[in-house]
Amino acid sequence: MRVLITGVTGFVGSHLAEYCLEQGHEVAGTFRWRSRDENLGIVKGKVALHDADLRDPVGVRKVIQAFQPERVFHLAAQSYVHASWASPAETLSTNIISQVNLLEAIREAGLTDCRFQVAGSSEEYGMVHPDETPIKESNPLRPLSPYAVSKVAQDLMGYQYHESYGMYIVRTRAFNHEGPRRGEVFVTSNFAKQIAEIEKGKKEPVIHVGNLDAYRDYTDVRDIIRAYMLALDKCEPGEVYNIGSGNAWQIRDMLSTLLDYSDVEVEIRTDPERMRPSDVPRLECDATKFKKVTGWEPQIPFETTLKDTLDYWRERV
């Protein structure tokens, strides 16, 4: 198949590109001129790269017309929750307008057989009450950040375009996914990088942290990209599916596990700059609906994910 991955140079996009090529698909991807392509690694040169700002409808139409995709995984986004507080308007416009342009371009090109994945987020659920976990797809959406609001808009836009135009759109709400290549602004990767820097003597033996009390449902990115492929192969268009491990880790326990893989003695120091104006206390996934349709199960233990992430940073600092 012809597979288009927006944000192909990113954390998830690069892993998905590798997987699609292994499956024998033809892969194209969009990126922005300032994107670094180091994540592409061994698949660089095997992916048709399109320099495109997805907020520009003309540029998006050119990409869609040129490649004529049969599958679209829309992963490009302003995906850092903390940054959305500083730049709410940019987060909303980037995430919402980009998807509008893609869906309109597919419609205008008459690609009736094209399947489109809306990559939503567990952040859409926001304020989850204690009696609402594990979280089902039917849980109310109470977003607590501009990023989460933008993902709710993308999610419901996918439903609307399916209902209005009959487009084959599957909405996924993935819970936290981690692993090698994760951006250093995200908590697991940030902690791993700090530990690697301390090991190399490039940083004082202090781990700077934000809120360690929150619980998150973690899955390895290499399991998530398999799930994304299955979503477009087997899931019902217009429907929404949670994807996650079903196991919630407290962030302080995640940090403790990372430190178990190192011999360094460190001080844990709270940094007020790392605290959010509001935070989701617990996100724990009920992926029963998705597993029943696809047969998917995560295969990589989170301890392995953390070790691989730490080793990734050890090679780079």
Molecular structure report:
The protein has 317 residues and is of the alpha/beta class. It has two domains: 202 residues, Rossmann fold (3-Layer(aba) Sandwich); 87 residues, UDP-galactose 4-epimerase, domain 1 (Alpha-Beta Complex), CATH 3.90.25.10. It is built from ten helices and 13 strands. Strands 3-2-1-4-5-6-11 form a seven-stranded parallel beta sheet, with helices on both faces. Strands 7-10 form a two-stranded parallel ribbon. α5 links the parallel β5 and β6. α1 crosses α7 and α6 runs parallel beside α8. The longest helix has 22 residues. The two termini are 38 Å apart. The model has no long low-confidence stretch (mean pLDDT 95).
Strand content: 15-25%
Annotated CATH topology of the largest domain: Rossmann fold
Q: How far apart are the first and last residues' alpha carbons, in Å?
A: 38 Å
> Number of helical segments?
10
The averaged pLDDT comes out at 95
H and E order: EHEEHEHHEHEEHEEEHEEHEHH
CATH superfamily of the largest domain: NAD(P)-binding Rossmann-like Domain
Overall SS class = alpha/beta
Q: Strand sequence of the main sheet, in spatial order?
A: 3-2-1-4-5-6-11
**Largest sheet properties:** 7 strands, parallel
